[in-house]
Design goal:
The protein is of the alpha+beta class. The chain contains seven helices and 18 strands. The strands form five sheets. The protein has a seven-stranded mixed β-sheet with strand order 13-14-12-15-18-17-16. A five-stranded mixed β-sheet has the order 2-3-6-7-10, with helices on one face. Residues 44-128 form the Semialdehyde dehydrogenase NAD-binding domain.
Length: 346
């Protein structure tokens, strides 16, 4: 989930997605969008998958960031076509998405398509301009959350190996999975057989390997996305990445345990200072109170939270660190990142 892309002259995010046509002029200053009240000269938008969890979050982010638009269309599957949806001061009829080619994750690893996290690698999309053609891909949610925390440290000491274990919420599988988790929880508490329509196994009070297909190498597709996308975003084919992705019975927001090995020494105090200054990152790291990031801390929040910042005792010479990261998969892991890309274009 969270698969997104932007194409020009009709930019678009897909999965739950946003098309942008024509120009706008949201100006950028030091990682901050200058909000604009006038929208007559803004772009025309079309939100794809508007009835899903990420589609709904797109609408919230558009409002929260006062993203300028001249008009907006609501697009979804055939079964939702004709329904009405309220947004800001208007009511819109949902239209059926008929285009067959909007499978965004297919673009992520295309050589000529930048894969962008605005706080991490905005320069990768420097050649793309509104009306000039081009495509920008939105990374996988787990990759975004991971690299928001790992990249500032990578810039300082250069990561040569990264081990990631993810604890992924129901939100990553969409609104239907979130609803099923809630339903299963009630059913299990009432000692009824759990309804398993989305996943093949019980989700409530359980955890299991991510449901993405497993390849011949033993890694599932979600894990390989972390491996391949990290190399592309960091523009480093030599960095070693391995991942294990797990579904946990959390409603919203992913957690990740990240072990980093560096080329240069990096002590935990310096790492903490680096992360405190990093855009889009918050620190929750209180050892005395055993207070560290949780999914609830970041749900409906823009920032990725980082804690458990500690030296890896298995690596000599302060060349390793462990960190624990939580980020809202629907927001920064999908909708917010896509809107931030759009803001950079305008």
């Amino acid at each position: 989930m969270g698969a997104s892309a932007i194409a020009q002259p009709r930019q678009f995010f897909t999965g739950s997605s946003i098309f942008i046509t024509n120009g706008g002029n949201c100006r950028r200053r030091a990682n901050q969008c200058v909000r604009m009240a006038a929208k007559e000269d803004g772009p025309s938008l079309a939100v794809v998958g508007v009835t899903g969890a990420v589609g709904q979050e797109f609408l919230r982010v558009i409002t929260d960031r006062d993203f300028p638009y001249r008009s907006i269309k609501m697009l979804a599957s055939k079964r939702s076509a004709g329904k009405r949806i309220g947004f800001e001061d208007g009511e819109y009829v949902i239209e059926e998405l008929r285009t067959e080619s909007l499978t965004a994750s297919a673009f992520r690893m295309d050589e000529g398509v930048p894969l962008v996290i605005p706080e991490v690698n905005p320069d990768a999309m420097a050649h793309v301009r509104v009306g000039k053609g081009g495509l920008i891909a939105n990374p996988n949610c787990s990759t975004i959350i991971c690299l928001m925390a790992a990249t500032p440290l990578h810039r300082h000491a250069k990561v040569i190996r990264m081990v990631v274990s993810t604890y992924q919420a129901a939100s990553g599988a969409g609104a239907a999975a979130m609803e099923e988790l809630e339903l299963q929880t009630r059913e299990v508490l009432e000692r009824k057989p759990p309804t398993c329509n989305i996943f093949k196994t019980q989700y409530a009070f359980n955890l299991f390997s991510h449901n993405a297909p497993v390849g011949e190498n033993g890694y599932n597709e979600e894990e390989m996305k972390l491996v391949k996308e990290t190399k592309k975003i960091w523009n480093d084919s030599n960095v070693l990445v391995t991942a294990t992705c797990i579904r946990v019975p959390v409603m919203r927001a992913h957690a990740e345990s990240i072990n980093l090995q560096f080329e240069k020494p990096l002590d935990e105090d310096t790492a903490r200072d680096i992360l405190k200054k990093a855009a889009g990152v918050s620190i929750i790291d209180d050892r005395a109170s055993n207070r560290f990031p949780t999914p609830l801390d970041v749900s409906n929040k823009d920032d990725v939270a980082v804690g458990r910042i500690r030296q890896d005792l298995s690596q000599a010479g302060k060349h390793g660190l462990d960190i624990f990261v939580c980020g809202d998969q629907i927001r920064k892991g999908a909708a917010l990142n896509a809107i931030q890309i759009a803001e950079l274009l305008l």
